[in-house]
Specification:
single chain, Glutamine Phosphoribosylpyrophosphate, subunit 1, domain 1, Rossmann fold, six-stranded antiparallel β-sheet, 29 helices, 17 strands, globular
Length: 645
């Protein structure tokens, strides 16, 4: 795991001095660089494999190609044998050198052979071109800035590294701001900053002769070709075991994040076949009744792991500015704070950490799938649909200023429009809510009032011949997974110089899961059905059949007085966002959500719905702090004053 940065025709001579201190956490063990004409490559290394011989850039035999690489290739030993038989010679034991020889042998088709997580750049010194790419699922990040007029091109592992470039003007992309607020992340290829883009998962980019060309090389095929449940169970078991054990390859200590649910427990079960006394780590919240400590202890005891626990306390809110800085973009997942604290402890013991991310996306573990299953059975009946929409309209009429009842009405009325319906269910804000919150000059040029209006990043997944359910999975995997969940996993682990690995997102496992019939994933209201049945052989049934329990940061009640201070100080302040983007009165109204009828009588009784308003507030808080930090150059110490005043 590393930090990479490079480009062409960059005249900022102080760039390295500015970038080094803010990206060095990704690779504190070593630094390497290459200059060739107007091209350059920089590499910060976190040593995981071949600790002594893996300095980058690494070259091919005749030194006409050079590579810098961030990630891990888990099948590199097999590829090395294949490339040796083709006549290639190796001078290191790294997976990095395997990539450059594979590229030399197969060109861009080498990407079809790589199994792992990666972002890398290969400089062709003979033809003066750059080839940069990102892994299939977007586990590793890659940003770029391109000015066609000046012929400047810069790429990096993190957004904040590119923001150090003087010519990359810092300006919010207002056309994408509303999308960010809707989803709590900026859907690729856009970022919230103008002129800085993300290379999308499964894509590569070629820079040559002052121009860029981008191509897609992979996407999962949702074909549902298999029919035998037992046959699929056996394939799934074998692929899970292979993937998890491949992800244990390292020359440094490895640990596992253990929640006590089936995903992380499966990691421990298969890892224990290879490693005895593996280290496991669990987080919980002070005063929470539904912490998963007990379930995690069951697994830790069964597989004899070296188990560690951390309790998050309300006063820990004071590290929020540090977390936002580490997250790079203003991605507003509240769990980042708890993970940041956990990983500070993890790094004292291990350098590689396995995470259960991705299992819910490929096996249908989220609550929204169950909600849609119920809705389709009820609202699919014309009489039930008419009655439900009538009742939704009554509630909206009775409580005209209640956003949750308006959202319910929009959800019910949009039922026959698949994309709009799913958007109303899952978005943090919808268009109507943002119309109140954002000044008209900012939002209204980008949409017209319509409850069926759906952002293109959602609608695009429903314009095909796949099944309804596979459309949902496609959206979850291409958007939320890479731009939110994996984004935060990468940034928060790397902030502590830890390599986070995600075995459930092994390419072959994802491709297998995409072919499993949906009824084997969601069986009635039984989520992850085939996965649970597969793991019955290895886990206690109390774990394998345990109801899905999200890792929810209880922001609606946990961070009480200090968090309230932070919100009110930010929302009442005269600053650029409050004066130019937000309707400040509406911001402040949001803080009184506990008085709103929908919350008082309905939402607060369920731990997920209780966060309907709280996650909207959190989204804006993160954006405001991020803006102050990245655009107004406020220090972490200054921002902590907003919490403690």
């Amino acid at each position: 795991m590393c930090g990479i940065l490079g480009g062409y025709n960059i005249k900022d001579n102080s760039l390295l001095d500015k970038v080094d201190p803010i990206i060095k956490h990704r690779g504190p063990d070593d630094f390497g660089k290459l200059k060739h004409q107007d091209f350059f490559l920089w590499h910060w290394r976190l040593s995981i494999i071949d600790l002594e011989g893996g300095r980058q850039p690494i070259f091919n035999e005749d030194k006409t190609l050079a590579i810098i690489f961030n990630g891990e290739i888990y099948n590199f030993k097999q590829l090395e044998k294949e490339l040796l038989s083709c006549g290639h010679k190796f001078y290191t034991k790294t997976d990095t050198e395997v990539i450059i020889h594979a590229f030399e042998e197969y060109g861009e088709n080498c990407l079809q052979k790589l199994e792992g997580m990666f972002a890398f750049a290969i400089l062709d010194l003979k033809n003066n071109s750059l080839f940069i790419t990102r892994d299939h699922l977007g586990i590793k990040p890659l940003y770029y800035y391109f000015d066609a007029t000046k012929k400047e091109f810069l790429f990096a592992s993190e957004l904040k590294a590119i923001l150090q470039l003087e010519s990359a003007n810092k300006e919010l992309d207002l056309a994408n701001l509303w999308e960010h607020l809707m989803f709590r992340y900026s859907p690729a290829p856009n970022t919230i900053v103008k002129n800085i883009k993300k290379l999308e998962p499964g894509h590569y980019l070629i820079f040559k002769n002052g121009a860029i060309e981008i191509k897609k090389y992979w996407q999962p095929e949702f074909s549902e070709k298999y029919a035998s449940f037992e046959e699929l169970k056996e394939q799934l078991k074998n692929q899970l075991r292979q993937s998890i054990q491949n992800h244990l390859i390292a020359d440094v200590p490895v640990g596992i994040m253990l929640s006590g649910g089936i995903d992380s427990s499966a990691l421990v079960a298969f890892a224990a076949e290879r490693i005895s006394h593996i280290k496991t780590f669990t987080i919980g919240f002070e005063g929470q009744k539904d912490n998963e400590f007990e379930s995690a202890r069951v697994i830790a005891k069964k597989f004899n792991s070296d188990h560690n626990e951390l309790l998050i306390k309300p006063q820990n809110i004071d590290i929020l500015p540090e977390v936002i800085w580490s997250n790079d973009e203003p991605v507003a997942g509240p769990s980042s704070l708890a993970y940041y604290l956990m990983f500070k402890e993890v790094k004292k013991q291990v350098k590689v950490l396995l995470l259960g991310h991705g299992a819910d996306e490929i096996f249908c573990g989220y609550e929204q799938f169950k909600i849609q299953e119920i809705a389709r059975k009820i609202l699919g009946n014309p009489i039930s649909y008419s009655l439900a929409t009538f009742c939704g309209g009554l509630l909206n009429s009775a409580f005209k200023n209640d956003s949750a009842f308006k959202r319910l009405e929009a959800y019910l009325k949009s039922f026959k429009n698949d994309a709009a319906n799913y958007f109303q269910l899952t978005s943090v804000f919808n268009f109507r809510e943002l119309d109140k919150l954002i000044r008209p000059a900012v939002l209204r040029p980008h949409y017209q009032e319509n409850i069926f209006l759906t952002p293109d990043v959602v609608a695009a997944h429903f314009k095909n011949n796949r099944s309804y359910w596979n459309n949902l999975l496609s959206f979850e995997m291409s958007g939320w997974l890479s731009d939110d969940l994996l984004h935060r996993a990468d940034r928060i682990t790397m902030s502590q110089s830890i390599e986070g690995r995600v075995p459930f997102l092994d390419k072959r496992l994802v491709e297998l899961a995409a072919k499993i019939p949906f009824r084997f994933k969601l069986n009635g209201l039984k989520d992850k059905h085939i996965f649970r049945q597969t793991m019955n052989e290895f886990l206690p049934r109390e774990i394998s059949q345990k109801k899905k329990q999200r890792f929810n940061t209880p922001i609606h009640k946990f961070f009480s007085s200090q968090y309230d201070n932070l919100c009110r100080n930010l929302f009442s302040e005269k600053n650029w966002l409050n004066e130019n983007i937000f309707e400040q009165k509406e911001l402040i109204k949001l803080l009184d959500f506990k008085k709103v009828p929908s919350y008082r009588y309905i939402l607060k009784h369920n731990k997920l719905s209780a966060q309907f308003y709280a996650r909207q507030i959190w989204n804006i808080v993160v954006l405001e702090i991020w803006y102050k930090m990245f655009f107004e150059q406020k220090s972490i110490a200054e921002l902590k004053n907003y919490i403690n005043d």
